[in-house]
Amino acid sequence: MNTFIDMETVSIANRLKEAHYPFPRAQELRTQFNSCLEDYYAKAMSSKPFEARGLLVTGKSRMGKSHEIDHLIRAFNDSATPMPDGRPARFIQLRLWARNSLTDLGSSTLEALDYPAAGKDKQARQIWEMVFEQAKRNGVIGIHYDEAQHAFTDTGGAKNRTMLDNFKALMKEPRWPMILILSGVDGLSEHVERVGPEERRQLRHLLRPVRFQPIDPKADLNELNGLAYAYAKKAEIDFDPLSNADFFDRLCHACGKRWGLVIELIIDAFIRCKRAGEAQISLDHFIDAFAEMHGTPRDFSPFTAPDYQELFEPDRLLEILNQED
Q1: Of 7-21, 144-158, 210-224, minimum mean pLDDT range
Q2: Rounded to whole angstroms, how far apart are CA atoms 288 and 269?
Q3: Which of 189, 211, 233 marks a domain boundary?
Q4: Which has more confidence, 26 or 70?
Q5: Could you tell me if residue 96 is left (phi over 0), alpha (psi between -120 and 50 degrees) or otherwise beta?
Q6: I need a surface site. Which of 44, 168, 205, 263 has the fewest CB within 10 A?
Q7: Which of 211, 243, 275 is the last residue of a domain?
Q8: Whole-angstrom Cα distance, residue 23 to residue 262?
C-alpha cells in the first residue's frame, strides 16, 4: 500500500481531468485555427515564397485558454495531416514562465524542437537560424507561445520592438514560414498592437484575434448547467440537487467568472463526493473544495453567505491563487 498517494483519488481525478467539454468558444478558436491552416496549405502548394498567418488568443487568467489551445494542437498533431511536400505537419508548444530575452526565447524554442540548446554560446541570430533549420527538417509548421506577455516588458521599448520583429520574421521567413499562436492575458494585445513603424504593425494584421470572455451567469446559465452535468456523468454522480440559478451564480462569483476555475472547483467537489462514497452531490462538497483552494474557514463561504457578493472579492481571491502559482 502506498502511504503517500491515494490511488483511488488519483483514479477519480484522472478520469475527470481527462474529460474535455466542448465549449462554444472552442469552436471559434478551431474555425480560426483551420483558416490559418487552409491559408498555409494553399500558399505552400504554389512553391513560391509566402507569409503565414496566426492567432492572438487573449483573455483574463484562468479562462481556459491554454487548455483549449493544447487540446486543439494535440488533435492536429495526432492527425498527422500531410502538407503539400507529403510530410505530416505538426506544431510545437512552449510556455514562457518569466521575462525572456531574444536569445533565451530562441534557446527554449530549439529545445521544444528536440534540439538541446547547444546554442547558449551563440548569438541570437545564429540561434534563430537553427530554429528555422530544425523546424523545416522536422515538418514543424507552427509554434504556440503560451503566456507570451512574458516576451515583453513594460519599459523596454527597443527590446519589445526587436521581439515583435522576430515574431513577424517567423511568419514571413521565405525559406520556411510558420503559423504563430501567441496566447496570454489581455496585456499581450497591448504589446502586439502598440503603435510603431508600419513594418512592426504588420504583425498585428497577420494575427487573427480570439478573445476568451468571462462567464456571464445569466447568459451562460445553460452552458454552466451542461458543463456540470457532463462532469457529473463522467463521475457517475447525481447533480440534480444543485442544478439551480442561485448555485451557479455563487459558483461563478467564487471562481471570479473564470471557466478554468469553475472546472477546477467542480472536479475537486466531485472527487470529494466520490471519496465519501456518496452518489449525490451536495453543497458541502463545494464548501470544502473552496475552503481548501483558498485557505479560508469552512463557515466563511460564498456558497452559504447571504451577502456573498459583498463579502468576497473575486479579484482578490484570484490574486492569492496567482501568487501561489
Answers
A1: 7-21
A2: 8
A3: 211
A4: 70
A5: beta
A6: 205
A7: 211
A8: 13
The C-alpha atoms of residue 168 and residue 182 are separated, in whole angstroms, by 12
Cell numbers for 100, please give them. Answer: 525572456
Alpha carbon 235 to chain centroid, angstroms: 24
200 has a pLDDT exceeding 60 = no
For the beta carbon of residue 202, count every other beta carbon within 10 angstroms.
16
- At 83-96, the pLDDT tens digits run 998 999 999 999 99
3-state SS class at 211:
strand
Taking the CB of residue 307, how many other CB atoms lie within 10 A of it?
Answer: 8
With H, G, I as helix, E, B as strand and everything else as coil, classify residue 115: coil
In degrees to the nearest 10, what's the CA dihedral of 308, 309, 311, 316?
A: 120
> What is the bridge-based pairing of β-strands 179-184 and 140-146?
parallel
Find the CATH number of the domain harbouring 198: 3.40.50.300
Average pLDDT, the chain: 88
